[in-house]
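User: EAL domain-containing protein, Levilactobacillus namurensis:
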Amino acid sequence: MYRFFVQPQINVATQKLAGYELLLRSSHHDYWVTPTNFTAVSMAQQMVLSHREITNILRDHPNNPQISFNLNREQFNDQETIGHLISLKKSVPGLHLIIELTEAPSLSEVHRFAALYKAYDIELSLDDVGTDNPWTSAVREILPFMDTIKFALQNFRRQHRQSEIHNSLQTWRDVADLYHLGLTVEGIEDQSDVALAEKYRAQTTQGYYYSKPVPYCG
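Assistant: Predicted structure for EAL domain-containing protein:
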C-alpha cells in the first residue's frame, strides 16, 4: 500500500505557507516508510494518489500553494510520465506544479523534453545542488532551463561537511542570481537555519523545524 505524505514549504519573506512537497511512502508492518524502489509504483498509480492529495490541499488553501513532485532522470525523459503530468496539470485548475529533478538530465535531454513541461506551465527545479548534483559543466549547461534550485543542508550534515555549508551556499546563491533562479533551502532544523536561509536570500525553506513529512489532514 502506498500514499503520499506532504512536507510544507515556507515563504521566507512572510514565514507563511508557500506549498507542499509530495513524498511517496509505503506501508510496512503497520509503519509508513520511504520505498526502497520508487519505480515499483507505476506513474499512473502515483498520479491517482497525488491527485487525491492535491485536490484536498487546494480545497483547504484557495490561494493555490505550489506542489512539488520528484522525478529521477529516467522519469523526466519518459514520454508517458510527461503525459501523466500534463493530464494532472489540466485536471486540477490553478495547479502550480514544480518538478524536482533528483538527477540532472543531460543538455540534449533537456532540449528534447523541457519545452513539453514549459508548454503546460510545469516548472523545473534541480534538487540537491552542491551534493548529489554538484557544480559541473553538465549541470551548468542545463541551469538556464531551470526555474529554481534546491540546496539540502541535511546532505552536508549527513556527509560530515558542515564546515562547507556557508561557502557552498554562497556559491549557489551566486549561481541563482546569475541564472535568475529561485533558491530553496531544505533541511531547516532550527531558528539558526532559518537565519542562514535569510542571509543567503532563499525564497523558500523546508525542514523538520516546520514539520516532518506527514499525511495531509488539512
